[in-house]
Amino acid sequence: MLSTMSTAPPALKGDGNGRYRILIVGNSGVGKSTTMRRLSSLLGISAVSLDLLYFKPGWKAHTPEEFLKQVRSFTELNDEWIIDGNYLSKLKDVTYKQATDIVWLDPPALLYLPRVFIRTMRRLFGIPKSVDATPVGCQDTFTDVFFGGKDSILLWAITRHSVVREQYTPMHAIDAVEKGGKWRRLGGWGSTARAWFEQLDELAKHRRERMA
């Protein structure tokens, strides 16, 4: 009798030749940059946050052409890469298309929105983090945070929660890792992400042995 047990998808799909181009997406505050840095350290792959390429000092945006040029420069320079950030409308045919793996961080709002508030307060009071993903020369003010309207990071994170889910749910459904695709959704309260990183630890171990 054939076994009815399903085989769990690999931690990362890759390009079939042991190379990985990983895009990490999700709402503001879900931990994209933290996940990016952890993956970069674990796998030894160059990484960048799209916000650092998109914003100039004072939260001024680069032109679409400038932004695209910087992103393409990074992806063309590196055979493997890890990128964190959405920018779906601007980069659908670049990062989303070129990625071998897309990791969608989708925890419950109650889990991460308090972290957004704490992170924002730390920035306002100048409390440094060991690693800060804030673009150079970009600093939030009390006015920006509490009276900035649609530009307030707190309001942005709250209102974008459902928007991001609406954008990514159909994309994930079509190309999920469970179907052999490249979209991996990490939802829930943390157990799914922890299990995935346990898989990644094994993958990284075999990768190091192969490269030794």
Features:
single chain; alpha/beta; 5-stranded parallel β-sheet; 49% helix; globular
Verbal overview:
The chain has 212 residues and is an alpha/beta fold. It has a single domain (21-211), classed as P-loop containing nucleotide triphosphate hydrolases (Rossmann fold, 3-Layer(aba) Sandwich). Helix content is 49%, strand content 12%. The protein has 9 helices and 7 strands; from the N terminus they run βαβαββαβααβαααβα. A 5-stranded parallel β-sheet has the order 2-5-1-6-7, sandwiched between helices. A hairpin with a 3-residue loop joins β3 (55-56) and β4 (60-61). α6 (109-124) packs antiparallel against α8.
